[in-house]
Amino acid sequence: LGIRMLIWQHVELYNPNPPPNCVGYIHTNMSPMNVARNASEDARSMCYREYGTHLHLMVFELVKNSLRAVQERFMDSDEVAPPIRIIIADGIEDVTIKVSDEGGGIPRSGLPRIFTYLYSTAGISLSVEHELSDIGTMENVTMAGYGYGLPICRLYARYFGGDLQVISME
Ligand SMILES: Nc1ncnc2c1ncn2[C@@H]1O[C@H](COP(=O)(O)OP(=O)(O)OP(=O)(O)O)[C@@H](O)[C@H]1O
Ligand SMILES: [Mg+2]
């Protein structure tokens, strides 16, 4: 930290257009309040991006489901897995977001239960394996297995006046 500080200070002293009230890297008129305000705004927007946007959560959950379906279907085949498509249609009254995949659909027998909390075909292994592996910041994110992805998405969609429909084709 000390070495970096000295290097920055040295480099900044040669800055031909120094910012006002600065001697090198050192701000001689710094407002702790402004710094605190900026820092808290940054933290807030990061938190909002992470937790606040329900639309982000909904698309995230749907794409996760699609990825899993496609991956499980094509994992042992020589074919290249087909892409997941997202179409956003901006209508006069509605915005529709369609997420489609070629993962094979949901068996008819399972369809009545997909909006039930805790219904999942992922079994325990997918989530446990995931929790054991460390993949950086996604460490605690589970690919599938809780069985609340779809019901929670529909709940948010309906809460905000929309809906979530699942159309499955084998
Ligand atoms: N695009 C899809 N293609 C095939 N099956 C799907 C698809 N989306 C959902 N499913 C089926 O519906 C089930 C319920 O989905 P849901 O997202 O609610 O739970 P999950 O993905 O198993 O777990 P999680 O709560 O971690 O999302 C899945 O286990 C899967 O069997
Ligand atoms: Mg899911």
Outline the structure in words.
- By secondary structure, the chain is mainly alpha-helical.
- The chain has two domains: 2-51, no CATH class; 52-159, Histidine kinase-like ATPase, C-terminal domain (Heat Shock Protein 90).
- Helices cover 44% and strands 9% of the residues.
- The protein is built from five helices and four strands.
- The chain has helices spanning 2-13, 32-52, 54-74, 123-132, 149-159; strands spanning 22-23, 26-27, 85-90, 95-100.
- Strands 1-2 form a two-stranded antiparallel ribbon. The protein has a two-stranded antiparallel ribbon with strand order 3-4.
- β3 and β4 (95-100) form a beta hairpin.
- α3 packs antiparallel against α5 (149-159).
- The radius of gyration is 24 Å and the shape is elongated.
- It starts with a helix and ends in an 11-residue tail after the last helix.
- Residues 61, 65-66, 69, 101, 103, 105-106, 114, 119-122, 142, 144-151 line the site of adenosine-5'-triphosphate.
